[in-house]
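Table S2 (text version). Query chain:
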Amino acid sequence: MRCAKEIKMARDDLNTYFDKLEANLLIDIEKTFTENNFRIQNMLEDFEFRKSKVYEMQEDVNIVKSIASDFQSFMAIRELTKVANTIETELQDFFERGTFHWIEISNSTIILQSVKDNLKSFGKPYVRVIPSKIKLNVQKTRGAQLIGPMKISGSQKKLPQNLKSSKSSKRK
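Corresponding C-alpha cell output:
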C-alpha cells in the first residue's frame, strides 16, 4: 500500500531528524561539561596555589619568630599580613562573583513536552479525485447496435453523388 510506505518514510525521516537532534544535544552537553570542568580545574589549581602560599607564609612566620628579634618579627609579619589580606580579598571576590556556586548540568524536557503538546497527529488521510484518462465513446442511439448491419442498395449509393452535383449547380 502506497500510503503505508509514505507513512513509514515519514517516520524514518522523523527518526533521522530526532537522531540528529539527539546527537547535537549530546555534543552540546559534552561541550558544556568540558567547559565547566576546565573552569573548575583552573579554579582548583588556583586554590592549591593560594593554599601553598598560605602554608609558606605560616612557615615564614614560624622561622622569623624563632630566629629574628621582636622588631624584625613585627616588620616581617606586617609584610606577610599585606599578602594575606590580598589573598583574602581575592577569595571574597570569588564568593561575590558566584564562583563557588554549585554547577549542575542537565537536559531540559520542555522541548519534549512541547512536541507532545503541539504534535497531535502524524498526518491525516487525504482523498483527491483525479479525472479518468480513459475515454468511453457512447453512441447516442443504441438501436443501430441492436439491429445489426444493413445492406445498402446501389441507388442509395448514388444519392450522395447526386447531392454533390445539385449543391455544385446551386453555387453556379
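Notes on Table S2: Residues 54 and 84 are 7 Å apart (CA to CA). The chain has five helices and no strands.
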